[in-house]
Design a protein that fits this description.
binds uracil, alpha/beta, 10 helices
Length: 241
Amino acid sequence: MSKPERRHAALAAMGVTAWVPRDAAAAVEETAASPAPAPAVPAAADMSGADQTDWDSLAAAVAACRRCELHKGRTQTVFGVGARDARWMVIGEAPGQEEDRRGEPFVGRAGQLLNSMLAALGFRREQVYIANILKCRPPGNRDPRPEEVACCEGYLQRQIALVNPAIILCVGRIAAQNLLKTQTPIARLRGQRHVYGPRQTPVIVTYHPAYLLRSPAEKRRAWQDLLFAQRVYAEATRGSG
Ligand code: URA
């Protein structure tokens, strides 16, 4: 299968069948908001470069974590998965039931759709790094609480520092608002190039795949977000070989 054919198939799997972009640039023109740089997220204390925790120590710290009440209800922690030197990092909300059972992010139905979204971008799941705001499942899949996010924040910060991605794709309101430290609604976070951390890593926001499963009509917008992310990535890495 040729590359365009593979993308077409991935789009079909994603459920985007009615609309195929003429090309990425044209599609980006059609996004609702024009890309504008957002203010940088202030560097947190442990993003100063002083944190030297390596992958093994970080994974062990997460596995043993009892900082918040969520440890009591978990089957296991869900650390993150994928290429530790990935150029693209995907950040979701928190493990669901299936993720808690298997110890891996995005392995349920939402995960299958995320895989299709990644395939539409030309990636296999193993080529990106996938992590969540929370490493433990909230009971009944309720929204993460601020104190739980605060307890887990350092783990994600260190994962991002270690991966050092060229771009971060935030899926869903919870991931985006917590990563970017904002209460801005997702509708206004989409279509903007945000930045994260001391390296000013570009962050693009799109809908959560679980939301897209409930609202398939929004998949076209999600596809626009992915094309926008692709363009931001190309800009961010231009000239870096
Ligand atoms: N939803 C998320 O945000 N993360 C997962 O790992 C699974 C579902």
